């Protein structure tokens, strides 16, 4: 097979994937109000963005939610992975199955099931309901990341620690945690990004008391074009790019 | 086996993990199943008596049309993703290792970018006075701007754009595992390119195809914000129906029944995927 054909094809598909993102970034610096025609360079939409108090509040809310959801899901996810890896207990398959269901079921199914639960127990929709929901859909991803790390790990180390008299807790703290540290960081970053990006689940379990960024963008883009969204999208793009590179760097470095 | 007192850490971990999953995964899912067989109630959302009205309502011609249209758009999305993704994954698996890593990284960057924002970016391109119409008019291919936004095509383009990486990644995984010796053996035994493709490559990559279909087809029925932004009111997905039933019409049994249908579809696809893998395990070397 000639070599240029596959190469041209790859390039073409990458172009298709990146053109919309590029358009967004370029138009975020557009001075024109119309949104389609080019009217010269300007930072006015970034300015408009930061002068919009409700928008800035939503940004902080989203960041705080993503931070807390990533942290809680990393702690619980890591403990789950350790339990699955180290302990033998009844119902292990069931536990695995539930994690699998969360990961595979369509987001909207998870969303309505959680909404039903929160209304049943009388939880007011807001920060707490969003946090519980986000931790739940981030959890399987953290578990998988940590499990992958644990599966390539020398089993004799924890045994040695136990033989030297360390309790389960001490052994976990001094032997296992350092080993899974890169996976914890990668899982945390993944959770952070998933939480920041989520629209479907948040639409159902979010409430007016705690407005977050994706929901605000959603209500903005449903009607017409809003040039501020270009600026906001560009900021989010840069932000997730940094996060992604960070997580890849951590994973690559730990493999050496 | 040591007693609970001697292993407080183990006990604490297991209680926390089980507690979380039972409360936030098992209970909610049982609730949905329960809600789907109850009666709609304006005050408490659902009430007794138990019945199958919600499931019957799914087959009401009005909704059946929406579901079939949604299924059609999702199927087209999946097909286009497969047609673009299959040769793409194949070409990707032939690229030298070092560059492959970079290309895969470039493939998942969009996946990490806010999907709402990316859908919105398509709007900039597809709008009546948007970039694509302007470009086509300036090169003289069309005289009048075409209506691209708020069409079935726009929804499909949006879904393909968001879901393409989910088709490519599992396909790449199977192409990466494709054994060169089998291809050579087929060639040595006198098979032409087409015969090798049909008898070796297609069956060997089938699990990847099914995994990709699974990862694209179901989200393509649920991503309600894509029609909201690109499709107008006539091109709804099952996700839009579920969302409307829960948040606007407050018809919980019906919304629950629709979401159970989606879950069943997922279970069916997973079963097919497992089956295809097992078949290859038996027939393979």
Structure in words:
- Chain B: InterPro entries: MetI-like, MetI-like_sf.
- Chain B: The chain crosses the membrane at residues 12-38, 66-89, 101-121, 154-175, 196-226, 252-272.
- Chain B: One of its GO terms (cellular component) is plasma membrane.
- Chain B: Belongs to the binding-protein-dependent transport system permease family. CysTW subfamily.
- Chain B: This is Spermidine/putrescine ABC transporter permease PotB.
- Chain A: Required for the activity of the bacterial periplasmic transport system of putrescine and spermidine.
- The complex is a heterodimer of chains A (256) and B (285).
- By secondary structure, chain A is mainly α.
- Chain A has a domain at 52-224: MetI-like fold (Orthogonal Bundle), CATH 1.10.3720.10.
- Chain A has eleven helices and no strands.
- Chain A has helices at residues 4-28, 44-51, 53-86, 92-104, 107-120, 127-151, 156-163, 168-197, 200-205, 213-221, 227-255.
- In chain A, helix 2 (44-51) packs across helix 11.
- The radius of gyration of chain A is 22 Å and the shape is globular.
- Chain A starts with a helix and ends with a helix.
- Chain B has 285 residues and is mainly alpha-helical.
- Chain B has one domain: MetI-like fold, CATH 1.10.3720.
- Helices cover 76% and strands 2% of the residues of chain B.
- In chain B, strands 1-2 form a two-stranded antiparallel sheet.
- In chain B, helix 3 (61-94) packs across helix 9 (193-217), helix 5 (115-126) packs across helix 7 and helix 8 packs antiparallel against helix 9 (193-217).
- The interface between A and B is large, with 78 and 80 residues.
Tell me the name of the CATH homologous superfamily of chain B: MetI-like
Q: What is the CATH architecture term of one domain in chain A?
A: Orthogonal Bundle
Characterize the overall form of chain B.
globular
Sheet/helix structural class of chain B: mainly alpha
How many β-strand runs of chain A? 0
**How confident is the prediction overall: mean pLDDT of chain B?**
84
Element pattern of chain B in H and E: HEEHHHHHHHHHHHH
Approximately what portion of the residues of chain B adopt beta-strand conformation?
Answer: under 5%
């Amino acid at each position: 097979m000639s070599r240029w054909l596959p190469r041209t094809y790859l390039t073409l598909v990458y172009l298709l994937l990146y053109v919309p993102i590029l358009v967004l970034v370029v138009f975020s610096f557009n001075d024109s109000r119309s949104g389609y025609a080019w009217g010269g360079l300007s930072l006015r939409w970034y300015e408009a963005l930061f002068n919009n108090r409700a928008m800035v509040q939503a940004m902080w809310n989203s960041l705080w939610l993503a931070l807390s959801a990533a942290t809680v899901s990393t702690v619980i996810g890591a403990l789950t992975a350790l339990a699955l890896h180290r302990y033998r207990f009844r119902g292990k398959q069931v536990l695995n199955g539930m994690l699998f269901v969360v990961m595979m079921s369509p987001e909207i199914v998870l969303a309505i099931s959680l909404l039903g639960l929160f209304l049943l127990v009388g939880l007011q929709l807001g920060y707490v309901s969003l946090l519980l929901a986000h931790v739940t859909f981030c959890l399987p991803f953290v578990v998988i990341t940590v499990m992958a790390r644990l599966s390539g790990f020398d089993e004799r180390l924890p045994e040695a620690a136990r033989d030297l008299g360390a309790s389960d807790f001490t052994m976990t703290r001094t032997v296992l945690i350092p080993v899974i540290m890169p996976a914890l960081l990668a899982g945390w970053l993944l959770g952070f990004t998933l939480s920041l990006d989520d629209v479907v689940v948040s639409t159902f379990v979010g409430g007016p008391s705690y407005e977050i960024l994706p929901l605000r963008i959603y209500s903005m883009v449903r009607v017409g074009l809003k040039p501020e969204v270009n600026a906001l999208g560009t900021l989010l793009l840069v932000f997730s790019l940094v996060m992604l590179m960070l997580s890849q760097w951590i994973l690559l470095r730990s493999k050496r | 086996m040591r007693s609970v007192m001697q292993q407080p850490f183990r006990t604490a971990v297991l209680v926390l993990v089980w507690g979380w999953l039972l409360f936030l995964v098992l209970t909610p899912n049982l609730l949905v199943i329960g809600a789907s067989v109850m009666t709609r109630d304006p005050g408490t959302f659902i009430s007794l008596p138990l019945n199958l009205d919600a499931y019957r309502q799914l087959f009401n011609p009005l909704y059946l049309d929406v579901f079939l249209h949604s299924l059609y758009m999702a199927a087209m999305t999946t097909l286009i993703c497969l047609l673009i993704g299959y040769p793409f994954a194949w070409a990707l698996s032939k690229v030298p290792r070092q560059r492959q890593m970079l290309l895969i990284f470039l493939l998942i960057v969009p996946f990490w970018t806010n999907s709402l924002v990316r859908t919105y970016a398509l709007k900039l391109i597809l709008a009546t006075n948007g970039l694509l119409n302007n470009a086509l008019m300036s090169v003289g291919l069309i005289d009048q701007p075409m209506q691209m936004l708020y069409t079935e095509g726009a929804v499909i383009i949006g879904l393909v754009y968001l879901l393409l990486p989910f088709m490519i990644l599992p396909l790449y995984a199977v192409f990466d595992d494709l054994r060169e010796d089998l291809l050579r053996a087929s060639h040595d035994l006198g098979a032409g390119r087409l015969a090798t493709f049909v008898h070796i490559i297609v069956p060997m990559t089938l699990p990847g195809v099914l995994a990709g279909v699974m990862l694209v087809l179901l989200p393509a029925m649920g991503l309600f914000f894509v029609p909201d932004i690109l499709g107008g009111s006539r091109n709804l997905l099952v996700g839009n129906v579920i969302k409307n039933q829960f948040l606007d019409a407050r018809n919980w049994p019906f919304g629950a029944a629709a979401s159970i249908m989606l879950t069943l579809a997922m279970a069916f696809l997973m079963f097919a995927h497992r089956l295809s893998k097992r078949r290859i395990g038996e027939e393979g070397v």
